[in-house]
Every structure is written in structure tokens, then in C-alpha cells.
Amino acid sequence: MKDDISREERVDNLKGMGCSRKRVEDARFTQGKGNYVDDIKLDGMLFGDFVRSPYAHARIKNIDTAAALEVPGVLAVLTAADLEPLGLHWMPTLAGDKQMVLADGKVLFQGQEVAYVVAEDRYATADGIEAVEVEYEELPVIVNPFEALKSDVVLREDLVGEDGSIPDGAHGPRKHPNHIFTWDAGDKGTTEEVIANAEVVASESMYYHRTHPCPLETCGCVASMDKVNGKLTLWGTFQAPHAIRTVVSLISGIEEHNIRVISPDIGGGFGNKVGAYPGYVCSVVASIVTGKPVKWIEDRMDNLMTTAFARDYHMTGKISATKDGKITGLHCHVTADHGGFDACADPTKFPAGFMNICTGSYDIPTAYLEVDGVYTNKAPGGVSYRCSFRVTEAVYFIERMIEVLAIELNMDAAELRRINFIKKEQFPYTAALGWEYDSGDYHTAWDKALKTVDYDGLRAEQAQRVEDFKAGKTRKLMGIGLSFFTEIVGAGPVKNCDILGLGMFDSCEIRIHPTGSAIARLGTISQGQGHATTFAQILASEIGLPADSITIEEGDTDTAPYGLGTYGSRSTPVAGAATAMAGRKIRAKAQMIAAYLLEVHDNDVEFDVDRFVVKGAPEKFKTMKEIAFAAYNQAIPGIEPGLEAVSYYDPPNMTYPFGAYVCVMDIDVDTGVPEIRRFYALDDCGTRINPMIIEGQVHGGLTEALAVALGQEIAYDDMGNVKTGTLMDFFLPTAWEVPNYETDYTVTPSPHHPIGAKGVGESPHVGGVPCFSNAVQDAFRPFGNRHTNMPHDHWRIWRTANELGLHD
Amino acid sequence: MIPAAFEYHRPQDMAGVLAVLEEHGDDARVMAGGHSLIPMMKLRMAEVPHLIDLQDVGGMSDIDVRADSIVIGAMVTQAEIIDHAELADAAPILREAALQIADPQVRYMGTVGGNVANGDPGNDMPGLMQCLNAVFTVVGPDGERDIPAREFYEAAYMTAREDEEVLTAVTIPAPKGGYAYEKQKRKIGDYATAAAAVQIVRDGSNCVSASIAMTNLSDTPVYSENAGAALVGTSVDAAALGAAVAAMLDDIDPTEDNRGPVAFKNHVAGVILRRAIERAWSRA
Ligand SMILES: Cc1cc2nc3c(=O)[nH]c(=O)nc-3n(C[C@H](O)[C@H](O)[C@H](O)COP(=O)(O)OP(=O)(O)OC[C@H]3O[C@@H](n4cnc5c(N)ncnc54)[C@H](O)[C@@H]3O)c2cc1C
């Protein structure tokens, strides 16, 4: 047979890896044809919503639901007393703690769920909520974790023995009734000794403020219990639908095969939709009680105030070095504010996530990390907002410590980084805190970044600006923000990563149809990342069928293979690997079929783009399309009919994407207004599957980084009231606030990943936050600034200028 | 974010509006663009058992630029202010200010009447109207009356308008000289951290008149007569600027909120006013 198109054209037709294929999802999203949870409408569907506590800490004396039940349309009001006989008034958290589903005698944070009102429509539900009368007795409020560790006020009476003893928690001994755990890594003794004897030591304390992932779509679900067949269907904004199914089964006692969890289109997650929330439990119970489907959808304030915050880490560091800047040791202590319940979403063995990646991209011989988790009267959560578990905190910490050390050494911060980078030839590199970095080439990336932005020129311009400022010629300072980050993503190897005992593998199942198109289902779920586009591209390259002929489906636990979901940039590293491996199984069978059809030995054919060819005789071939058909219509000796494969992938290691970012900023010292003049982002995420999607992810992650660095926070007053519960005060940048981003890349494939890909969705956030922050801080460095805490909103920047005497 | 139940009225003329207002007293409220009122209702911070939509009333949507005054109907939207070429010529400060209010979506709905009647210290138009010495025309059961903008605001959400009166028009003496509306905000769609409206008339190198009002720095807009007076008769030099800022600082009374503490707001108010005066002076 002869081909009328070239090999290049055949490659192009696949739209496989490396192609900036347009997102197949966008047609429906841009036309308002997405199908989100709130779009689901079922016959007789009811609405549930919460009575929430106005107090941050209070005892509940009484709940009177009588008036609410009189409101037209209201069918039921659930309280903890109703859930208790079912054992559902508390639920397990992902962090080994338990959390009240509905307030059981007391509330621990403002906005806590107190009662659940079920009515015929949303409006009746809202009126019913108004009519529930709750009698509270206010208790002393603690919003500061350091105070919590000294206070006599016990927040979690359920975790203290009757004799006042403090039983161990899920992560070992607790020091105080409000203490959750101490977790450490590294060599304490050696690190302390190295630092004590070092030539130079820089110390700094920093607070990484509490913020929130704030996806555009808030959390919600629809629960529908079919009493006839005993099956529960639960649609929801779940970043991990399979894990939710298992959790629902474990806590409700409904057998897992009778539960179907469906994540429809999800309007952003960023970690907010990983956890299990009282809304899910109450909706399920309400559906069982009423026999009707029940919908629960958070409003914006509920979302910001109650579901899954991020960060809230008080970090103290010491970094030691030789006089010429070679880092010798790093010490980090974290006081972690977890709020009223420990509901952090981390792998079980890592109560502080991967905070122990805090040695960053540097060859630091000894290090020690210690984290204390603490209860306060704030909302529970502690999710990884657009980052792998606590990596944002870790990278912020080290990238600030480097800057502070540079000040201590009176050295250029770019040079300090360069002389301490792990060298290319040191990979795989085992860091002092235990992780084995799979690959990297930091010097190449750094040099490329600095050259592109003309780093030396920028520094010269900045020096001139300082002179002009001192001479009274300008009131604007210039800051150059640097950051070099290493992410740790793709959790993870089952040997050390699990959530609630579920190993963090992921999966892909492929069915090739007779006519040469396919469907692949994965254990992950896209929330905007474009899985339907990129996973089809991986498969296209692996199995030689066009990406346009491959449907990707996720999110329905009745059809998709089991997986741990999408967060922590794990989809490509884990499910992407499973996809490639499943594709290779398809290819292996296809090879046998091809050999049979071509009447040669299996080993005499080889794969070429979209076909198997006879070695040395490229004119003899069978296309994958032909092979697919043969799989269904020929009786081939020794080969089962059909062409399907499943792969469960347990990654041998994490992947370690990295990047080099530079931000140039002008700061008006009189108003505190920063203006971003330039932002350059070089990302190395290994093999690049779809460059356009990578660019989109980088833009999005940087924008969320800008938000966090420059103003986005969940702030509490002393009474535990949330001060930033609406988008008027919670900063969500628009196109107006966002600069033009310049993106760039290097490619250092992961050596252990089947296609060398590392994940990119979160890198820009992880690297972006310190970069924006460093730019602000760098502007003030010539005037004596060492460190100021984020968020760098106008008044805090102004305060820095004021404290440095720049308004005098 | 679901409002309490309410009755929706959509009268076709002003008589109908006044009738509903009279019948229900302070249980009734008019709605113009709804972009201040509806959020308050959804947060259940405002309960309005009888909501009267003004959209069908008519006669309040014109912009009339006359020789020595400008009349703006209460239902003119902020977007219409921005798009009106004749108005932009006659009173460019209105356009400059309107462009700094909220975002385009809000400006398509939000009206001049709603903005000035609302009484929220964060609204930009009240200070602007005080700077321009506007007069608000209201109509009630006893007919029409005029209230100067500079006497309209009593406290947050408290104005000289009676509950059963409707604001129908804003009349501005044709502004003269240079102008500036300077606003610092945290992001698009935000109310001012501090904002200043300045209108200056210049004769040679001398300032002959100056009008200054500040926004979101007290529980009402602040018309600072003394700040304006500090500029008159000067060449708007550094000393005059300093005196104007000092006078303004005496008149404002900011409170701490998420935008920052009082010291910061005072400082920024001074910076913003200085910039506004300089820009207005350069255009005078
Ligand atoms: C996201 C967002 C950002 C915003 N940012 C700004 C900003 O930066 N600056 C700013 O100035 N505004 C801002 N606003 C408010 C916006 O400009 C409003 O539209 C405006 O304040 C009110 O106009 P309205 O026509 O929407 O009035 P409505 O919301 O309909 O009414 C507001 C109040 O005025 C009363 N009222 C309305 N019309 C009349 C009348 N003719 N007679 C008597 N009483 C009347 C109503 O009863 C109500 O009490 C913002 C709004 C939003 C939603």
C-alpha cells in the first residue's frame, strides 16, 4: 500500500504530544453549555441550606425549630440531635481528626453549620433559616495560635480526658489541649550545631497569611436516594469523586456499589473542593429522610468563610552560610493555624504536607523542620491552594530566607542562588529533609531567565532610581523580584502516600472502538485544566489514533476506574502516566494483531506514528484504524477479540518541576500602590504535552499568585469575625489588575515518568507568590528593609515606607 | 444571599410611585439601577417589603446641557454620563469620575439618582456633586423642592430627602476652569480608599476660585470649603497646597477598615488631594 501523505502530515493529523491543540472543552463553556452541579434539576428536588453560627466560639443552649417548620415550603430542619442516632453528627476529616457535621453543643468558628433546613425551593429555605432560633452563650475567642497554646480555654473538649489528660492525636503526642501535633523532619542536633558554629546566620520570622482558593463556582451537591433500588447518586463539586464515594460509604454504611458519585463540570477547584463538607452529609441524610433529591449550593460568603482555607503558617527560620555565601544549614519552625478542626487535606503521613521540601532548589547539607499544628476559633481547611501539599509555604519560606541571607551577606540575591543551586550532575539528588529530586537543570534555567530580562541592566536602573529618589526627583521605587522554585508534585508513591488509607495511585481505562476511535476514562477530574484535551493528546501519540477521535471521560464512579482525583498537580504525573501505560498495553496487543495481519513474526513489525510497519519494508503496514477493526472482526489465534486496556499507575517517585521567575515593579511610596512593569516566567515541567494549555495554566497560576501576594486574605478580628467575607474585600484580580506575562521554558524530562512529564498547573502559583513578594521587599531593601509580611496591599506597603522613614 | 420576600411594584408614572410610598411609608423603597439596593437586600441588611421599580416611570433619563447649567435626570446611568459627548465637553469631571466608578457592568445599571440618593459614604457622585455645587430636585406628596448637595448628607445612609420623596433630577451650574477627579482604590469595582474632586478657576497665575470635596473619608462626603479657600488668591504653590491639604485634613474623619488604618487614610487623602489639585491646576 502507498501513502499519499508525508510522515510529518501523519504526525500532525494525530494532534498528539507537543501540539497546541485547542481545548475541546471550550466550545461548551464559551457557549454557556457547561453542566455544573447547580445546572442539575431533578423532579421534586428540594433545597437544603445551613443556619450558621454568628459567633466564633459559643455554647449552644437551645435550638428552636418550631417557627421554621411553620414557614411555607419548609419540610425539615436537621440538627445534631437528629444526626446523632445515625452516628452522623460528626464525620472523620482527611487529617485523622473528626469534625462536627452540625454543631454538637458548641460552635468553634464563625459560619459553622448549626442546623440544616430543607424546603421546596431556595427562597423558602432562606426564610426557614431566618426562622430558626438558636440560643448561644458566648465563650472566649482565640484567633491566634500562639495564644491558643498558652490559654486555659479549651477549644476541643472532646479531645481532652475527663481528668484533664491530653490523649495522643492522629499524629502522636499533644502538648496542650489546643495542640494538634508536632511533626518534624531532618537532623535536629546537627542542624543546630552547624548553625551555632556558622560564619554567617540569617534569622527571620514570617507569617504566611490565611487565604482561600475561591473558585468561581462554589461548593455544592445534589443527593438523590432511590429508595426502591437502594442506590444513592451524589453529584457534587468533588476534586476526588472516588475518594468521596469511599468516604460516604464508610460513614453512612451504604455499600459502596450502591453509591454513585458524579463530578460534573467543575468551575475551578484549586484545593477548595478536595475535602468532605457537612453540606454533603446533610444533603445525603435529607434525601434519605425525605425520599427526594436534595440540592445544596454554597453562596460566596459561605464559601469564603467556611469551606477550606489555605496557608496560615507562622514560620521562623535560620539559615547559615560561609562568608562567601555557601549555605551550610537550614532550620525552620512552623506554628500552623488549623482552625477549629484539623481538616487539612494532606497524605496521611504528612500532617504538614510536603513542607519538608523547604530546602528548595539548593544544595543544603543539613536541615531541620518542625511543625506544630494548633486549634483556633477559625474555619477548618488547610488545603493546598493551587499547589502541592504546603509547597507554596515551603517555597515562600526558602525564597524569603535566601533574600534575607543575601542582605546579611551583602550579596546579590541572584548570585547567592546560583552558587547554591543543586547542580545538574547531582540529580537524582537526595535533600537533607529526605526527598529524592528526580531531575533538574537549574543553572541553565536561571541563566536564561536573567539574560532575557537583562538582570544587570535592571540592577543598574534600580541603583539610579534609588539615587533619584534620594535626590527628590521621584517618589517611586523600583523592585526586582526573583524566585527560583522546585515543586514536588504527583502524589504519589503508594508506599508513602495515602489519603484515608487509599493509596495515591491513579488509573486509566481505554476502549478502542471497531472503527478506530476510542474512549478513555480516568480516575481524575478536570476543574478547568483541560484534561479532555491533553489526555487525548498523550493517547494519540501512544496509540496512533487522532486526538480528535478520542473521548476522555472522568468523574463518574460507576464508569471511571478508581483514582484519587485531581489536585497537587497530580493528574499528569500519575493519571497521565497511567494513560501512557494503558496506551502501551493497547499498542502491545495491536502489534500482535498487525503481525498476524501482515503475516510476519511479532518482532518483525514496529510502531510508526499511526501504524505498524514491517521492519525494513515501510510499504508493508497496517494502520491503527485497520488494526482496531481487525480486533473486532477477525478470529486471531491466541488473541482475545477486542482492544481494551486498563492501567493503574503507582508512581515510583514524585516529579519535581521547577522554574525561574522575575518580576519588575514600581512602587509609589506615598500611596503604597505597586505597579507591575514586567513579569517573566520560565517553567520547566519536563515534556510539554500542550504548550498552549501550559501557557494558560501559567497565566492563571501567576494571577492567583499576584492575588495572594498583593492583597488576598481571609482576615479575622479579635472576636473571630471574618472581615473579608465578600468579593468587595477578598481580592480577586480582574484583567485590569493583571500585567502582561512573558512565558518561557526549558525541558528537563522526568526520568521515571513514562512520557517525562512533570505537571505544571501549580508551579506558577508556587513560584509566583515569592516572586511578587520579593519584588515589593526588594524595592525597600536599599532603605533597610529585611522582611515584611504579605499581603502587600496598599496600606501595608505604605506602612513599610512609613516605618523606614520615607515619608519624613 | 437570598433577600426576604417582598412585593414588587412597577408604576408607570410618578403619581403611581408616590401613591405606593404614601401607602406603605418606610416599608416601601424605590429602586433605580438596583446596584446598591439589591446587594443590601440579598445580604438582608435592607428589608424592603415593598420595592418600587422606577424603570417605567419616564421623564428622568435626559441630560440637558444648557448655557449656564446642566440638568441630569435621576435615571441617567453612569454609562450614559460617560458616553455623552456634549456633557463631556461641558463638565468633563463627570466623565472622569464616572469612569472610576465600579466596572462597566455596574455602570450600565447604576444611575446618577441612585448614586447620590443612596447616602453611602463610599459612593463617588455625592462628593463630586458637592464639589460642583449641584442641587437635587425631589418630589413628594407636597410637590417639588430643591436641596443643595452640600446640605443633603446627614450621616451614613441618612439624607435630607424624606422617605416619601423621590429624587428626580440633579442640576449643576456649568463648571468652569480646570478639574480633576482622583481616586485611589484597591482594585476595579472597589470604593475609594480616598478620592478628591477638584474644580479650579485660574486667572493668569492666580487661583480665583476652588472647590474641593472628598469621598469615603467620613460618614458623609466632605465638602471642604476651607481647603478651597486656601488656594484662592495663591499661585497654587507648595505653601498653598500644604494649606489646602491641612484644611481638608481638619474636615475629614476617616475610620479604620480593610482598606487601612486612620493614619494611612489621612496620609493618602493628602496625597490624592495634592495630585488632584495639581492636575486641575494644570488644566485650568
Ligand atoms: C461591584 C460594585 C462596585 C461598585 N463600586 C462603586 C464605586 O466605586 N463608586 C460608586 O459610587 N458606586 C459604586 N457602586 C454602586 C453603584 O454605583 C450603584 O449603582 C449606585 O450606588 C446606586 O445606583 P442605583 O441606580 O443602582 O441605585 P439603587 O441601588 O437602585 O438605589 C440605591 C438607593 O438609592 C435609593 N434611590 C434610588 N433612586 C432614587 C431616586 N430617584 N429617588 C430617591 N431614592 C432613590 C434607593 O431607594 C436605594 O436606597 C458599586 C456597586 C457594585 C455592585
Automatic annotation (TrEMBL), chain A:
Query: Keywords assigned by UniProt?
Result: Copper, Metal-binding, Molybdenum, Oxidoreductase
Protein's name according to its UniProt entry: Carbon monoxide dehydrogenase large chain
MF annotations from Gene Ontology? anaerobic carbon-monoxide dehydrogenase activity; carbon-monoxide oxygenase activity; copper ion binding; iron ion binding; molybdenum ion binding
Q: Where are the transmembrane segments?
A: none
Tell me what reaction this enzyme catalyses. CO + a quinone + H2O = a quinol + CO2
Query: Species name for this entry?
Result: Ruegeria denitrificans
**This protein's record includes keyword Cell division:** no
Describe the function of this protein: Catalyzes the oxidation of carbon monoxide to carbon dioxide.
Instruction: Fetch the Pfam families from UniProt.
Output: Ald_Xan_dh_C, MoCoBD_1, MoCoBD_2
Q: Where is the signal peptide?
A: none
Which EC numbers does the record give? 1.2.5.3
Record-linked PANTHER family: ALDEHYDE OXIDASE 1-RELATED, XANTHINE DEHYDROGENASE
- What is known about its subunit structure? Dimer of heterotrimers. Each heterotrimer consists of a large, a medium and a small subunit.
> Which cofactors?
Cu(+); Mo-molybdopterin cytosine dinucleotide
Every copy of the Aldehyde oxidase/xanthine dehydrogenase a/b hammerhead domain together lies at 31-140
UniProtKB/TrEMBL annotation, chain B:
PROSITE patterns, A to Z: FAD_PCMH
- EC number(s): the record gives 1.2.99.2
Q: Which Gene3D superfamilies match?
A: 3.30.465.10, CO dehydrogenase flavoprotein, C-terminal domain, Uridine Diphospho-n-acetylenolpyruvylglucosamine Reductase, domain 2
Domain named FAD-binding PCMH-type: residues: 1-177
| Pfam families listed in its UniProt record | CO_deh_flav_C, FAD_binding_5
InterPro entries xrefs: CO_DH_flav_C, CO_DH_flav_C_dom_sf, Diverse_Substr_Oxidored, FAD-bd_PCMH, FAD-bd_PCMH-like_sf, FAD-bd_PCMH_sub1, FAD-bd_PCMH_sub2, Mopterin_DH_FAD-bd
Q: Which UniProt keywords apply?
A: FAD, Flavoprotein, Oxidoreductase
The record's GO molecular-function terms, alphabetically, read: FAD binding; oxidoreductase activity
Name listed for the protein in its UniProt record: Carbon monoxide dehydrogenase medium chain
